[in-house]
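We close this part of the discussion by returning to an individual protein. In the encoding step, the backbone of a single protein was reduced to a row of integers, each denoting a local shape. The sequence in question and its structure tokens are set out directly beneath this paragraph.
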Amino acid sequence: MIQFTVYSVITNVFSDEMMKYIGYCEIWVGVGLGLGPMLGSAVYPLLDYEGTMYFFGVLNLIIMVMCVFFIPSELNKTTSMDELAEIEAELEMLIVDATPQKVKSISWLTLLSNKHSFFALLTCFVGFFNITFYESFISPELVKLGFSVSDAGY
């Protein structure tokens, strides 16, 4: 949820340099996906399974409170019915005035040669790699807690 909120804030507040700030967010998501399993494997021997879950729950709560205090309050304003009617009228005008554009095809080579999409693909690869590691780490713990082998992800 925090990641979607960040994208909404970026597109609203930093629309002139939106891609730059979305790139920064993607970098930090990748860093989190890389450091999360390392931090979890360091905390787990100290706090065991249940303590590790509480640790990350408290960490997420702290981050949520920080978001409440640091997200600008002007983004939380409500829209009146008159403003909504005005926005709908503008959207209708855009739809009526829209002319069909020629759609370009995007190849894999185009995606891999674009540095933004390549970095997003690389981030996803690292994230999936770490999640796969974490899944193999958590399944034995679920079996120890009494779950059957078929329910634990083996």
In short: The chain has a mean pLDDT of 75.
